[in-house]
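Discussion board: Methods & Data

I've been asked by a reviewer to show the raw model output for two of the constructs in my manuscript, not just the figures. I'm not sure how much to include, so I'm pasting the format here to get opinions. Each protein appears as its amino acid sequence followed by a line of discrete structure tokens. Is this the kind of thing reviewers expect to see in a supplement, or should I convert it first? Here is construct A:
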Amino acid sequence: MDRTVPRYYHVEVESSPARVGPMQRIVAAHLRYWGLAKLVPSATQGVGLLLEAAVSAVPAERVELETWWTGQHLITAVSHPDASEGGHLKGAHPHFQQIATLSDGWGSCTTNSRNIVWFSLRKSDNDREVLAAKQPEPWSSEALSVPRTPATHGSAAREPVSAEAAAGRAS
């Protein structure tokens, strides 16, 4: 997969502690498919924290999980119906401190009566992954030799000429 092409994944699931692990595995599979295997540990931990926070805020509701890859940043957001009148504050859930620690950036907002919490991870330049395994060059003993064919009558192949014969022709 070309890691510079933007990608997007969206799913809506029941808000349940039992859904946290499977959703982490699904996000991990998408990231590996997108060629972002080095982001899997941090991203799946962040997804788990966001889903656990959503489950504790609104049990028995549906939550939405969205993941975007921009070519440089992975942005993951979880949204759920807003149970409070004033919306979520950034420090309202203990998991938010952990999300802030593992991510490059994070935030929360309330829109259309839904609470959204997101985090982003940046792929650093030195996190390059091999796109495809290269086939090694064959050893000289393994290389096939070019078949030699004998010269046929009328072909351009000539008999080797000795230095004496060449000198005799020149005179």
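Construct B, same format:
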Amino acid sequence: MMIKLTMPLLVAILLVGCTTAEYPITSGYNKINQLTKVETGDLTQFGQQKLTFAWYPGRGKTFLPADSNSALLTDYTENAITKIMQDKGYIFTYNVQQADFLIGYGLAVESELSDDQIFNKVGSNLGLSMSHLDPDKFQKGSALIAFYNPQTFQTEWQVLAQGIAKVGLSQQARKDKIAAVMFSMLNHVPAN
């Protein structure tokens, strides 16, 4: 009887001592903030046997309009992925030979890379519908994160996501949106 009474108190004390990482949250879930994802591969070795990661050579591919600042969006993406993985207990290394796995990613908008082209490159397709939105105000955005074997460069796991990208967002809003999307995409990666 005493154990039944003290367990909730013990759990509450443990929860109070836990820390959380802050990630921007999109304002509500609706048709504009919808994110559709598909994962392929195996994460069972991650969190147990795989601790260090490095960037895949030529790590990021972007298919963005010429008027977007691809370098800045790449920087936002790499910083977000690195922070999320480090918060999960993984260790970043610049040395590809010392890494247990490599991370690569891609960013695209529909005007620069169609669903058919994504399928041909990645082997997955989500086909998020944009028919309900004004194409002058919104575009379909796609993001891919993949984990590779550092010896064979074969994909071990990947997640493809599509969502609605609002045209004309401020740089801070884009940074926040990228961080939230990357967090959602990496959600199933186990902590170390």
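Answer (T.O., handling editor elsewhere):
This is acceptable in a supplement if you add a one-line summary per construct. For B, something like: Strands lie at 35-41, 52-63, 91-92, 101-109, 138-148, 155-166.
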